[in-house]
Amino acid sequence: MLGCVIHGRGDLRVEELPEPEPGPGQAVVAVRHGGVCGSDLHYWRHGGVGDFRLREPMVLGHEAVGTVVSLGAGATGPAPGTPVAVHPATPCGVCPECAQGRRNVCRDTRYLGSAARFPHVQGAFAARIAVPVEQLRPLPAGLGLRRAALAEPLSVALHAVRRAGDVAGRHVLVTGAGPIGCLVVAAARAAGAARITVTDLLPEALGYAAVAGADTLVRAGDPDDAGWPPEVDVAVEASGAAAGLNTCLRLVRRGGVVVQLGMLPPGSSPFAGNLLVSREIELRGAFRFDTEFDEALRLLAARGEFDGLISAVVPVREAGAAFALAADRARSCKVLLDFDG
Ligand SMILES: [Zn+2]
Ligand SMILES: [Zn+2]
Fold it and tell me: Which residues form the Alcohol dehydrogenase-like C-terminal domain (predicted)?
């Protein structure tokens, strides 16, 4: 069976992997689709993401949907044949963060396809994977595997909006119209935002933000763009660039909230800290998600417009081309790998 393994910076290989056996409490899932995430692209292009560096070959991927094949000893979970989405996180359940209900920042979590710990946790870009049954979610009625592949990034977006507080009736700014930024738009809309403004350097990316429900699109590189708001109530930084963070700090109202969601470059980033002080802006981080995964599946089942954010489905044998496509934001939004056959 085939899988996508990153061996180092720029070295992505589609290779034969051993068939997984379900361990105690595990299920084997035949993966149908795996979404290519910004973090997968970072491992490919830079050999790491944020401050996590690759130290051994790793199967990429954490956005997986498929069908249950078999259950291991003592596993009670969805029956073979059930279509499922795979929650990529297994928090430890005993650390202080888990005890406080902040399982997404668990200090000892296992997250599919992540180099945050060593040995790395192998990912989901493989024809079949073995995962704990607790990580499986049967798809709600009416939700197909293809759209369900957005569950993981939509969960990230829902968590970021939750970190912003109550956005109902508010004007929300989103900097960065990649797949995550677009899903933040959808999440903010679902949470009742009154107005959503999105900035990006690329007009093609802004087009996807419009599909997701943005009201106003602004070219980030154009200070004269008529769409720039005088101020906003809440800002979510989804570009992962220091320039985006500074735009958020400049435009959020006094006492407003800025959520940093995009992973910034490794090390330190310059930002307009004095605005934070003099305007009493609250700067909050948002990392992964927890129970938002179930909310994401419900939202995906209810809304067809998400289909417009899936810009390509590429056979796994062409994973290199799929990654190049996903990295070219002028040509793509969310790119899915197809592991069928
Ligand atoms: Zn992702
Ligand atoms: Zn924990």
Answer: 179-301
